[in-house]
Design brief:
The protein contains 20 helices and 27 strands. It is an alpha/beta fold and about 650 residues long. The protein has four domains: about 5-235, ANL, N-terminal domain (Rossmann fold); about 280-445, Rossmann fold (3-Layer(aba) Sandwich); about 450-550, ANL, C-terminal domain (GMP Synthetase, Chain A, domain 3, 2-Layer Sandwich), CATH 3.30.300.30; about 570-655, Non-ribosomal Peptide Synthetase Peptidyl Carrier Protein, Chain A (Orthogonal Bundle). It is elongated.
Length: about 650
C-alpha cells in the first residue's frame, strides 16, 4: 500500500534503505553528525517516547533547537507521535523574544524541544513564558535500533505542523499544514526537482523556515541524501555552500535570490578555482523576487567552473501553500520578459524597448503542478482576469494549508476565496502577490500590500531599491527597504563595512539621482544604515513594514554622519538640502504627469506642455502643485509653450541652494 503520511513513508524508508545516509551535517567543510534512514526512524521514536508523558496527541510542541540534526530528530519525533510541531529558533535578541512569546501564546504549546546545552538558558530567559510548558532535551533521548513508535499513527487530515509566517510581532499567523498537505507538496517538489533515491542535494536554509523545512522533508520523501550546513556558516562564508555542492557532487540546491548575489559578490577568485559545479543541474531560486541580473551575474562568475545557465530554476511558493507553487517542468534557460515599468505601475502588461529607461525585467516562475490551479484575479472586483493581465495570484490545490491556527476571520479572508464564474466551487488561497499568467507561465511582479502610491502612480519598492543599489559601489545589493514614510517615500539602505567612510552626502545624492532618472520619483529621505540593520525574515526577505516602524521609532542603526532632514523633497524656503537639476526635473515631470493624467514616461522634458493637454485650469493646478511640493511660487503659471526644461530653469533661480548639474 502507498504510504499516505510522511510517518508511514519514514518507516518504509527505514526498512528499505536502512543504513544509507539521509542527513549529513557539515561544519567547516567537515562531517560532524549523520543520520541514516534507520537511525532517523529510531531517533524519532525515542523523541516521541519523550513527548508521551507530558503531552497528548494534537498538542503543540515548540522546537527551539540550534541548526543541525537535533532539529530534524525533534521534528520527526513530533510527526511520529501525532503532536503538532511548531518550528521556531532559539531567541537571539529582544525583537525575536517578543515574537517567540507571541507564538507561544498563540499556539498554546505544551512542550518545548531543545538541547541540553540550551535548556537552562531558555529557562532563565523565558521563565514566565514557559511556566505551562515542559522543556525536553532531544539529545537525551535513548533510541533503540529497530524499535519504532508504539502509539497511534497520525491521520492524513490532522495538522502536522504550524508554520508561523512573518506577520506582525503581536499577532503572528500559524499556517496549519496537515499530513496530507505535506505529502501533496512533497510530491509536487519531487516532480519539479526530479529527485530520486540516492541522489545528493545541499541545503544551508533554516530548518524552521518553510523552504528549509520542506527541503529537509524531501530527503525522506524522495529517498535522497541531504547535506546540511548552518545558515550562519553560509552567511559568514558563502563559499561553504558551493564547496559542499562541489565536494559531494550534488545535483540540486538553492535558496533565495540574495544567496546567489552573495556568492557572486563574496567568493574570491582563489576559492572559485577550487570548485567543480558541473553536477549541479537544478539551482532553485525562490522566497523573494527573482532578479534576472542576479542569475546572469552568477552564471558569468561560475560558468568556467562547470555551472550552466540552464540550471537556474526560478520558482514561486509561500508558507500558506505549504511551500512550492510553481516552477518549470523541464530544464531550460530562465524565461525573462522585458516589460514597461510605467505600464506595470498602471496595472498593464506591455512590452518595453530594451534600450529605454522604462524597461523592467520579470523572470518567469514556471507553471502549476499536479492538481493545482493558479488564477489571476482582480484584487478589488474579485473576478478572474485573462492572460497577460496583472492581478492578485490565487492558488487552489491539495497542498494549500488548512488555514490559520485559531484565527477564523483571517482564514476566511485568505484561504476561502471564491470566484463567481468557477463552476466547481473551488476555494482559493489569496496570496497577496501581484502577477500575471501567459500560456500557463507565472510572472510575479511584487506584493500587493507593498505597493507605494505617489500622486496616483504605483511604484514597486523592489524597483526603487534596485535603482538605488546600482547607483554607488558602497551600497549592498538586496540590503534596502523602500516605503511610504508619512511625508513621502523613504529608502533605508545598508552600506558595506569597507565603504562606511564614504562621504554620506555623495552617496545619498547618487541614490536620489538614480531613482529620479530611472523611475521619475523623488525620495523624501534616504537613511544609510549599518550592515544587517534592515530587518529580514528567516529566509532573507526584506521586511519593509518592520523597517518602516524602526524608522518611525528612531530605531535604525544609522551610519555616523547620516542625519537626513524631515523631508528630502525639494522645499526651497523650508531649508531642504541642495537640489540637483536631475532631481528637480524628475519632480516636475511627476507633477505634470499627475495633473495632466499622463504616464510619467510620456512627459518629455523638451515637449511643449500644450501638446500634452495643458490648458488654463491645469496650468493653475501645476503651479499649485509646485507650491505644495517644492515650497516655491512661480511668478506666473506655465503656458502652453512652456516645457518641463524651461520650468526647471526658472525654479533653479528661485530655489535656494539649487545647482545645475
Amino acid at each position: 500500500m502507498v504510504p499516505r503520511t510522511l510517518v508511514s513513508l519514514l518507516r518504509e524508508r527505514a526498512e528499505t534503505y536502512q543504513d544509507q545516509p539521509v542527513y549529513t551535517l557539515l561544519t567547516g567543510g567537515q562531517v560532524v553528525d549523520q543520520l541514516s534512514f534507520a537511525t532517523l526512524h529510531a531517533h524519532a521514536a525515542a523523541v516521541a517516547a519523550q513527548l508521551a508523558p507530558c503531552t497528548a496527541a494534537g498538542d503543540r510542541v515548540l522546537i527551539l533547537c540550534p541548526p543541525g540534526l537535533d532539529y530534524i530528530r525533534a521534528f520527526f519525533g513530533c510527526l511520529v507521535s501525532g503532536r503538532v510541531a511548531v518550528p521556531a529558533y532559539p531567541p537571539r535578541n529582544r525583537r525575536y523574544m517578543l515574537r517567540l512569546r507571541a507564538i507561544l501564546d498563540d499556539s498554546l504549546a505544551r512542550c518545548v524541544l531543545t538541547t541540553r546545552a540550551l535548556r537552562e538558558q531558555l529557562r532563565s530567559a523565558m521563565a514566565g513564558d514557559l511556566a505551562r510548558a515542559t522543556i525536553v532535551a532531544v539529545d537525551e533521548a535513548e533510541p533503540v535500533a529497530g524499535h519504532g513508535w508504539e502509539g497511534p499513527m497520525p491521520r492524513e487530515s490532522e495538522v502536522a505542523f504550524l508554520q508561523y509566517t512573518s506577520g506582525s510581532t503581536g499577532s503572528p499567523n500559524g499556517v496549519m499544514v496537515t499530513h496530507s498537505n505535506l505529502m501533496a507538496n512533497s510530491a509536487m517538489m519531487q516532480d519539479a526537482f526530479k529527485l530520486a533515491p540516492g541522489q545528493v542535494y545541499v541545503s544551508w536554509l533554516p530548518l524552521f523556515h518553510d523552504m528549509g523545512l520542506m527541503a529537509m522533508v524531501q530527503a525522506v520523501f524522495s529517498g535522497a541524501h541531504e547535506i546540511i550546513l548552518s545558515p550562519l556558516e553560509f552567511i559568514a562564508r558563502p563559499f561553504r555552500w558551493l564547496e559542499a555542492i562541489s565536494a559531494y557532487r550534488a545535483t540540486v540546491s538553492g535558496g533565495p535570490n540574495f544567496a546567489y548575489e552573495l556568492c557572486a559578490a563574496r567568493i574570491t577568485d582563489d576559492e572559485r578555482q577550487t570548485l567543480e559545479l558541473s553536477s549541479w543541474r537544478l539551482a532553485f531560486n525562490g522566497a523573494e523576487p527573482v532578479q534576472a541580473e542576479t542569475l546572469e551575474r552568477f552564471t558569468r562568475r561560475f560558468e568556467e567552473r562547470g555551472f550552466r545557465h540552464q540550471a537556474h530554476y526560478p520558482c514561486y511558493g509561500l508558507a500558506e501553500a505549504t511551500l512550492f507553487v510553481s516552477g518549470a517542468d523541464r530544464p531550460r534557460d530562465p524565461v525573462v520578459k522585458l516589460l514597461s515599468r510605467s505600464a506595470l505601475a498602471e496595472g498593464e502588461v506591455r512590452a518595453a524597448d530594451a534600450s529605454g529607461s522604462d524597461a523592467k525585467r520579470l523572470v518567469g516562475c514556471g507553471q502549476a503542478f499536479r492538481d493545482e490551479v493558479i488564477k489571476i484575479v482582480h484584487p478589488e472586483r474579485l473576478t478572474q482576469l485573462p492572460d497577460v493581465q496583472l492581478g492578485e495570484i490565487w492558488v487552489s490545490g491539495d497542498a494549500v494549508g488548512a488555514g490559520y491556527w485559531h484565527n477564523a476571520p483571517a482564514t476566511a479572508d485568505t484561504f476561502e476565496a471564491t470566484l463567481p464564474d468557477d463552476p466547481g466551487g473551488r476555494r482559493y488561497l489569496r496570496t497577496g502577490d501581484l502577477g500575471f499568467l501567459e500560456a500557463g507561465e507565472l510572472y510575479v511582479a511584487g506584493r500587493l500590500k507593498d505597493l507605494i502610491i505617489v500622486r496616483g502612480q504605483n511604484y514597486y519598492p523592489q524597483d526603487i531599491e534596485g535603482a538605488a543599489q546600482q547607483s554607488h559601489p558602497a551600497l549592498i545589493g538586496g540590503g534596502g527597504a523602500a516605503f511610504e514614510g508619512g511625508e513621502g517615500v523613504v529608502l533605508v539602505q545598508e552600506v558595506r563595512r569597507t565603504a562606511q567612510s564614504q562621504p554620506v552626502d555623495e552617496v545619498i545624492a547618487a541614490i536620489k539621482e538614480a531613482v529620479v532618472e530611472t523611475l521619475g520619483l523623488e525620495l523624501s529621505q534616504v537613511v544609510l544604515v549599518q550592515v544587517q540593520s534592515v530587518p529580514r525574515t528567516s529566509s532573507g526577505k526584506i521586511q519593509r513594514r518592520q523597517t518602516r516602524q524602526l524608522f518611525l521609532d528612531h530605531g535604525l542603526k544609522r551610519i555616523p554622519g547620516t542625519n537626513p532632514p524631515a523631508s528630502g523633497v525639494p522645499t526651497g524656503a523650508r531649508g531642504a538640502p541642495a537640489v540637483t537639476r536631475a532631481a528637480l526635473e524628475g519632480a516636475l515631470r511627476s507633477i505634470v504627469a499627475h495633473v495632466l493624467k499622463q504616464p510619467f514616461i510620456l512627459i518629455d522634458p523638451k515637449a511643449p506642455l500644450g501638446s500634452l493637454g495643458l490648458d488654463d485650469a491645469s496650468a493653475r493646478s501645476v503651479g499649485q502643485q509646485i507650491h505644495a511640493e517644492l515650497g516655491v511660487d512661480l511668478p506666473e503659471p506655465p503656458v502652453a509653450s512652456s516645457t518641463v526644461g524651461t520650468l526647471v530653469d526658472r525654479l533653479l533661480v528661485l530655489l535656494p541652494g539649487a545647482h545645475t548639474h
